[in-house]
């Protein structure tokens, strides 16, 4: 009985002590959920703060798949591809290209204004449009599918109005490229990629301007001294649309080119544009005396002859469907026509079907400068594009 009482007493004592400890236990509060991403809405949708900084970052891009058929002169076709079994036999085949583009934007407010950056990197796999009759040419195998290029398309820094880095020439960016068609360069409107030093200014009341010092690109376009190419532009923008002009000095060939563009919002559904270009070309056409022949096409005045014109527009049937068209013509009688229908299947995924036509006005002339690598005077083609943007 004494042992039994002792055991019962010990058990009771342990329960009492345990109860006392439970009453005195410290309850640890659960940690609040960590905020891993802080949204930044200063520069628009999609930005977030880089942790530990005041810099806002946005990441985006697109995946695109193009498939084209037709004539090489329309920039859609792959012609005269050699047969694998029958020597001397050639065929036409599809133009195909898959592209992944990665874009980044950053923004931060400073005492000197907004500090911004933009980058765009492109990865391409596919073949190249063109005519492959000459199998001894350096590009004879470009009809084959391959990893074609990894290109840094844009990479610039901007503080206030000052921008430096890699951009497209202001001859295109400030005035606008051309229409909302895929093959908008059947008649070209100016060089694109370049290292630049630019200054943008806003004069108020809808007026703005720009001055750009540029390096150019390619053998014809890249500057050959310390003297840069120079581009200047002025713009007036109102509720009805805009009027823009740019002028460029080509320091390699000492020639001048300019463009004027009018954009009009005709209705809520219809937007129209017309753009005219004029450039001097005495030195550009002097192949007999030039060390590097330009064949009449410089970095800025790429169209044929002294003048060219582009016009077109976009009509939105609804939020999902739009019709886009562009007509272009130059002094060398090159006529380009492109039209497409773009349909947004779901937000972020668009399918575009386009038809293109080129009439190369001087195709039969000895001094014909073959911009699109046409293999006949009149070329027709089409392209189907699938694009997922994010």
What does this structure look like?
The chain is mainly beta and 390 residues long. The protein has helices at 2-24, 170-173, 218-221, and strands at 48-49, 56-70, 78-82, 90-93, 95-110, 113-126, 130-131, 146-159, 162-168, 193-204, 207-214, 229-238, 241-250, 255-265, 270-279, 307-316, 321-330, 335-346, 349-359, 378-389. The strands form 2 sheets. It has a 16-stranded antiparallel beta barrel with strand order 2-5-6-8-9-10-11-12-13-14-15-16-17-18-19-20. It has a 3-stranded mixed beta sheet with strand order 4-3-7, with no helix packed on it. The chain starts with a helix and ends with a strand.
Topology, please?
Layout: H1 2-24, E1 48-49, E2 56-70, E3 78-82, E4 90-93, E5 95-110, E6 113-126, E7 130-131, E8 146-159, E9 162-168, H2 170-173, E10 193-204, E11 207-214, H3 218-221, E12 229-238, E13 241-250, E14 255-265, E15 270-279, E16 307-316, E17 321-330, E18 335-346, E19 349-359, E20 378-389
Parallel strand pairs: 3-7
Antiparallel strand pairs: 1-2, 2-5, 2-20, 3-4, 5-6, 6-8, 8-9, 9-10, 10-11, 11-12, 12-13, 13-14, 14-15, 15-16, 16-17, 17-18, 18-19, 19-20
